[in-house]
Amino acid sequence: MKLFYIGFFCCLLLSGCPEMDKLKDDPNDATLRIINGTSRDILFCPSFSFPDTSLNMGSWFLNEQEQEIALVRSDSFKDYPRQWKLLLSKENPDFRLMIFLFEKSTLETTPWDTIVKKYLVLKRYDLSLEDLEKKNWTITYP
Amino acid sequence: MAGFIKGFVKAAFNNQQEDGHHTWFGSAWGSANRHAGNDAKLWAGLFTADTRQSGWGWQILSKWTWEGLQTFGGFLTAQTFNMTSQINHVDNSKYGVSVIDCEYFNDRGAMTIGSYMMGPRGYRADYHDHLFVHEFGHTLQSKDWGLFYLSLIALPSITSGKWSDNHNDPYGTKYHDFRWFEVDANQRGADFFGNYADFNKDNFETGKKPTYINPRTQNYNTSAYPLNAKFDWSDLLINCPGVNLMYDIFF
Q: Domains of chain A, with CATH numbers?
């Protein structure tokens, strides 16, 4: 049995180990801060589908775990460290990062189809990389 | 049993702290159970199939025969990592593959041999992690290429990786990523998960316009996995049986 293992490993080594794909994960390059100055909980949802301003984030955004990440509680703020600069620099200069803010209670009480149809968004920001730099990566609502 | 004993001894002698345990015996006991659990799951991986697809009995038979070389190669490699490194998690629950979260692969990337997929901390069978989608493409290649997988896909692939390294090609973006076998893995992975409504194929291909967060990195997927191959003269070397082996040995 030992000989079998040794022989098998030799065969593997001779035929080369299957490749190791290198990790290309990019580090965060900016932190976007969302400040909720209202007495209601809001949900933050960025979108890279500009100039399509429809609510096409669909089922992913309804995911419970994602909603927890998106939640910015009343009179508080939340930081979102991401590769914002990298992603925006991949686009053309006219590109805008869209930031959708929803009221949490709306998502809890209204079917997603209705939200999309009636465009029940608290606020939408369309921001270029330059705009974000000027705002010091801070969005204050309202 | 071997995994249990090995895990116990390793933790006891390395003074390794296992999660939630504060005494050497507690750590050793925790480590022993983790190693034994991983061992059992790796064995179970030999018998797993994607039950959402028809013919799961044939899938297992294929693993043992047509894909036998890489199945057992993957199994033994994974067992070796269980003995020498720290495996945090083994997931056999989806797509008929064993997805192994292993400390050794942190900052190193991922490796797939047959249906054994080894990757960094947090690596799971989740298509929101595009590294997983690409690697899963390799397991689909393994199913189709069977006995020829190691010599016609894996060997050129390792040679290509070496070629990229030797030509200062960081991350292989100029050569390795565009070789036919890498692009083919991307296409297979993208086609498979394209059936899932929220899989973002454009983001997978370009690294642009993400719609979801990668649960492993807690960040967007920004790497591009090309779906169209490019020819480079070095392909003649990379794909030539025997020549590529010599290149691996001597360079």
A: 27-141 (2.60.40)
